[in-house]
Amino acid sequence: MRIERNLGMDLVRATEAAALRSGRWMGRGDKNRADQAAVDAMRYALDSVPMNGIVVIGEGEKDEAPMLYIGERLGSGEGPEMDVAVDPVEGTTLLAEGMPGAIAIVAIAERGSFYNWQGIAYMDKLAVGERARGVIDINAPVAYNVRAVARTLGKQLEDVTVVVLDRPRHKELIKEIRETGARIKLILHGDVSAGIMTAIENPPADILMGIGGAPEAVITAAALKCMGGEIQCKIWPRNDEERARVAELGIDVNKVYTTSDLVKGENVYVAATGITPGEFLRGTEYFGGGARTHSVVMRSRSGTVRYIDATHRWDKLMRISNMPYG
Prior knowledge:
Oligomer: single chain
Order of helices and strands: HHEEEHEEHEHEHEHEHHEEEEH
Helix content: 25-40%
Largest sheet: 8 strands, mixed
């Protein structure tokens, strides 16, 4: 029987390229140039992937974000028709300020798989790893979910760690988590990494809670689908304009979106590479004449999760690539 090609191994070349190019902007205070470096490298690498891809989750509409925009076609044009979700730098502020946790990430799945977020920027999210799958309920009180996860993981409440974006909107959420006795890990940016971290081996956090980006929820769902975890989300309109749009579109703000609602396909590939050092992935390290990267490649159909430590040599890499790494 012929072994089916794992497109994730092609995707990781794109996230490596994005990390290698953007990592040089760490701490230099320029988010835009850091992001552009990642975008250029990721687009260049993705165009060689044997697929007919279209960006469903990207950096905005074409006229607003001439980056990797929604509707852009990627890939060689040959091979399967795929939805593409990209975040060339998840955590541009983290990268620009030299802080931990910035990554490059891309996900693909069969055409029509990824949820169309319809311009509503935020979702309320609840995510856990595989061991706690099936015990959470986003409509239940915070204390219920913390206790359910603690019980399932065999932990004391005081040993459960909840990761939350450090935002004023989470003041009440943080208060409720503290009342349970659970630990809290506050993060400035990067709730894709935070959601995925709940599902890795020896996770630094057990639960992701709180309001974050809707496009990021889809990318998180793709990774958790590969790793066996679970995410539940609800649309969170942030102002009167978005509430009016929700009403116009007939969206039910009480509807709970599950992992399979956000990512319907069963053949999902995800690749990510660390840019700055973090708890999920190590950062890109530069040496004379090259660099080292730390990446992960996931595939839902096989359940395979690979971690890849790679050494890149500029002299050899640029013989086969037009991308100016050195």
